[in-house]
# Entry
Amino acid sequence: MHSDLAASSNDAERRLVKSIDRHRAGPLALTLERRELGPYRGYSEMLLALRELRERGARLDVIGESVDGEPLFALAIGAADSKRTSVLLSGLHPMEWIGIETQLALLDRLVEKPPVDRRIVSIAIANPDGVIQVEQNLRLIRHRFVRFNRRRVDLNRNFPSYWGRFSLLKLLPQRFYRPGTGPASEPEVRAITSYLKGSMVDRAVSFHSFGGFVLHPYGALVRAPLDVAEHRRWARYIARRADPRRPYRVLQSSHWVPGVTAPGMELDYFHDQHGALSLLIECSRGGQDLLPPRLGKLIEPFAWFNPPRPDACAPAIAAATEPFVRGLVRPNA
# Structure
């Protein structure tokens, strides 16, 4: 058994190294900072961060492949044999790099002191094809909005829970609303759900951007879940600490835009399929400067979602989220 695990880990390491080498490029921050877009890491640099976390004790696994054949990497921190599991997810929407940076900041904290009573599973780059496409656009100064995977499906409308349920979103043109041909029709979502099948997931956090919200279930239903009080208690705790000067707003996801529900969200999947307390954090409030307006940033979709200083919000959100991820029963006052 242990030899099988070691072989799997070694194979994952080899695939990680190959991916780093295949996508290696100069530091992306040098390009972005000249355009006031922030010191964000490119895809190969993100993978290097995963490798560093593995060297510090996190366990690495390959859980599947993207549409273009990119490996989907998962890290596990903490007690390998623990039944209780926390799941961290980011990068479903590939433009939202502040969510990835926030999760990496949280993983840095978790690997420093791994939990002894639970396993934490991290999928930091859930849509690698999309992230690679965004990076190419940034390097070539192409102002393109990228939300989907390579089959032009919104991965955060492709999860099995409530997929296909009617929503006003279905009235939008297909170019805007693409939930896929069926529940978990996309290889990225299928890899995530298959990998977690049978796990006792009781905590889940998904990192997105933007808006400064902490969202809780449901996304697909207008009514609140039975455990809404527990969701709100943790959401308010995180919201206050994510930005003490201007606390984030706490909201049921389906109430964000009145009357508009969103079937197929990961938020509902973790709650519906696993019974987990499930939160979605809209990290930061975007990267646009109100005054004076800068035309270059106004027409750059990357700046709509990502603040120019990720270090100004990612560490605070990571620290605010850590007790929830570690499975603390009740938030501290």
Remarks:
- The beta strands are 59-65, 71-78, 84-90, 119-123, 200-208, 213-216, 249-252, 277-282.
- The chain has one domain: 61-325.
